[in-house]
Design a protein that fits this description.
Length: 188
């Protein structure tokens, strides 16, 4: 039996299949990290973009239109845009700091665009959801999304059978999704 195509994986992800997200992660994370790193030239920011990309893929998989191109192109485009957005934000902050130092006048900061505020809120909800997870679930997600490890590497690092590592990742993703979709939940 052949592995499912990226198009099939996106279709399954749009229906809530966390295993398909894990498969997509295993197949694309290294390349996407490389793209983000090439744009940002900063490992920590590239890791953050990789995390944002997979969160976006989880949330927006149903928006992929096969008639407009290959799934792999869509995934790469999404990640590239996130990295470029982050680079532009960094450059705006740098220019803003330079202007501030040149003027040396305390002026109020310009409010962030609403999309940046939404991204900040989403990131805060993800962080809160991660804090709400048990340590065993939190550790597998951190290794996968923050450190870019594959399921096999996670199993090896935590000295777990591969099946156990996959199950923990799947259950952790389900828990995060539940916590994030339950808007009435107050995280600790």
């Amino acid at each position: 039996m052949t592995d499912p195509s990226p198009e099939e994986l996106l279709d399954r992800i749009s229906k809530g299949c966390t295993d398909s997200l894990s498969q997509l992660y295993d197949g694309f994370s290294a390349a996407l990290y490389g793209i983000a790193l090439g744009i940002l030239k900063n490992e920590a920011e590239a890791q953050e973009v990789l995390q944002e990309a997979f969160i976006a893929l989880w949330e927006k998989a149903d928006r992929y239109d096969p008639g407009l191109g290959k799934a792999s192109s869509w995934i790469i485009h999404l990640t590239r845009n996130l990295a470029i957005d982050r680079l532009r934000k960094r450059q705006r902050q740098h220019v803003g700091q330079e202007r501030f130092l040149e003027q040396r006048s305390p002026e109020p900061e310009v409010a962030e665009p609403s999309s940046a505020l939404i991204s900040q809120e989403r990131a805060a909800r993800v962080q809160a959801a991660l804090r709400a997870l048990s340590p065993e679930y939190r550790s597998v997600l951190e290794l996968a999304f923050f450190h870019g490890l594959t399921q096999s590497e996670i199993a090896e690092r935590l000295q777990l059978p591969l099946g156990t590592a996959k199950s923990r990742i799947r259950r952790a993703m389900e828990r995060v999704r539940l916590l994030m979709t339950d808007s009435s939940t107050d995280f600790p």
